[in-house]
Automatic annotation (TrEMBL):
This is Wall-associated receptor kinase galacturonan-binding domain-containing protein. Residues 1-19 form the signal peptide. Keywords: Signal.
């Protein structure tokens, strides 16, 4: 039966995409995609808690959801310290709000509250031009609209017709609340499409910046720390409960201060920050490894 599932995935995926489930033995999680290794709990086989697909031609992971137009969403970076993943979300005038929600939501991940969505087309919600908590310079939005080739829509191509919706970034004391985008705020705008997105980033110097054309996803594993979830954490890692977008509680493992790694027994565990990891588990950039 497992072999049949693998064969079906190979048929359903686009020709440039492959799944390395056949390389896995038993329930072990295969985390290699070409020359790239992703951090646990992500991987490319049936034994991985959060499965991804693999674009082997450029050693790049992609989200398992394939869009209505055959669109795939490539992973740009992982961050085990914040339990987040950054994916590319290029400008598009034909990505409906329901489709975007399906593309960016999975059984164990969802859009983080640091992500803002730019909506367009028929927006009739309250404060459609200002949206729900974020804004963008007119010249930047004009470039995004031109890149997306939003033509033949009359005045709807103006920057003022784009709504920006975001949730407030969680503060450092919010352990289980406010970590994910509230999709009800997005749907309240009653817009047709998600043009693109931006991520709120706080630099090491403490300044705030916005990265356009990307979305940040937060992830979790099922069950709480008190229900045995913490047993999956490695030594020198802590277990943290997280409130998921559905309202249920999940958990994450993370290395304590001064240590690096994915924090999981089944992964690379935790090691001293100055030690060179044997695997590239911190970040991946399209087309190359970043150790």
């Amino acid at each position: 039966m497992r072999r049949l599932v693998v064969l079906l995935l190979a048929v359903l995926l686009p020709h440039e995409t492959s799944c390395s489930a056949a390389a896995a033995s038993g329930d072990r999680c295969s985390r290699r995609c070409g020359s790239t290794t992703v951090p646990y709990p992500f991987g490319f086989s049936l034994g991985c808690p959060i499965p991804l697909f693999c674009d082997a031609s450029i050693s790049t992971p992609i989200l398992p959801y394939i869009g209505e137009n055959g669109t795939t969403y490539r992973v740009i970076a992982f961050n085990s310290n914040t339990s987040t993943v950054v994916v590319g979300l290029p400008p598009s005038c034909s990505r409906s709000v329901p489709e975007a929600k399906r593309e960016l939501s999975g059984g164990n991940y969802g859009v983080s509250s640091r992500t803002g969505l730019f909506l367009r087309g028929g927006c009739s919600g309250i404060n459609a031009s200002a949206g729900g908590g974020c804004s963008v310079p007119v010249d930047v939005m004009s470039r995004l609209l031109r890149t997306a080739q939003c033509t033949g829509l009359g005045s709807d191509t103006s920057p003022a017709a784009v709504a920006c919706v975001a949730s407030a970034p969680p503060n450092s004391t919010a352990a289980v609340h406010g970590q994910f985008l509230r999709w009800e705020k997005v749907e309240k705008q009653k817009c047709d499409d998600v043009l693109t997105s931006t991520v709120f980033v706080l630099t090491a110097e403490g300044t705030a910046t916005l990265e356009f054309g990307v979305a940040e996803l937060g992830w979790w594993l099922n069950g709480t720390c008190g229900a045995g979830g913490g047993e999956r954490c490695a030594a020198n890692a802590s277990c943290t409960d997280v409130k998921t977008p559905s309202g249920e509680l999940g958990h994450r493992c993370g290395c304590v201060a001064g240590m690096e790694g994915d924090g999981f027994l089944a992964g690379d565990g935790c090691y001293l920050a100055k030690r060179v990891s044997k695997r590239n588990v911190a970040f991946i950039a399209a087309g190359k490894n970043v150790s």
